[in-house]
Amino acid sequence: MISITDLRAAYGPLPVLFGLDLNVARGETLALIGANGAGKTTTFAVMTGRLKPQAGSVSVAGRDIAGLTPMDIVSHGLALVPEGRQLFPSLTVEENLVVGAHSRRAGAWHLERVYEIFPTVVEFRKRPSTALSGGQQQLVAIGRALMSNPEVLLCDELSLGLSPAAVDVVYSALQKLRGAGLTTVIVEQDIARALAFSDRFACMRHGRIVLSGSSTAADRTEISNAYFGMR
Ligand code: ATP
Q: Which residues line ligand 1 (CB under 6 A)?
């Protein structure tokens, strides 16, 4: 579903991705892990058109999307749940969700279906997004991404700034999407949670994938060594 080959990207003179190769199968959940600064968010930035790659290819369902605009990429079926949620504070919960449908991509997701799977946000639908707790805001951010009817969902640091209880709520909500056929990539600092939630993992260091494999069969020592650069 996702095929990334020899991807290179930089912020001005600062190179960040040094030839990244990554494949994710249709319907699979992949955990992209790695230390701060490894390049995980930058990978998402290139995949979603927020940063132009210098070289390499990114394809989704066989269509090359590298270098397209963010709007075009959403219409090709790729949606981002950004780090820090980035809801519009001046809009209601429902308005934030509707923003996600802007691409008018056809599919099975609509407001009522989002409320069905995240029922705790329904009572806030007419309230400003700022009236919600951090965990509920995270559900709205996921719902907003679903409103674009994606085939691929990229989730960046869903647990950031949330209490352990709120993180549990967010992941159990995400679990409800597992049967919906979405291909999902999660960036998550909590490695135990990332492995428990995913089918496969890929560990990044210095802008490359240095280790990948099945999450259930993952060797924690091997992951630590890859994560901290001891191999
Ligand atoms: P984190 O967990 O800290 O978000 P990450 O793996 O997502 O880590 P990135 O955010 O992709 O890493 O950052 C990779 C490198 O790019 C870091 O050295 C970072 O300082 C740099 N970087 C990120 N965003 C920018 C930017 N907008 N301008 C310049 N450099 C940036």
A: 11, 14, 16, 34, 36-42
Point out the ligand 1 atom lying closest to the alpha carbon of residue 38. Answer: 6
Task: Give the dihedral sign, CA 6/7/11/12.
Answer: positive
Q: How do residues 10-29 score in pLDDT, each as one tens digit?
A: 999 999 999 999 999 999 99
Nearest atom of ligand 1 to the alpha carbon of 45? 11
What share of the chain has pLDDT > 70, as a percent?
A: 100
Closest protein CA for atom 21 of ligand 1:
37
pLDDT tens by residue, 173-190: 899 888 788 999 999 999
- What CATH code is assigned to 2-227? 3.40.50.300
User: Residue 103 C-alpha to ligand 1 middle, in angstroms?
Assistant: 28
Answering whether pTM is above 0.90, one says yes
- Alpha-carbon separation of residue 20 from 92, 133, 144, 167 (angstroms): 39, 36, 28, 29
Ligand 1 mean position to 10 CA, how many Å? 10
Domain ranges across the chain: 2-227
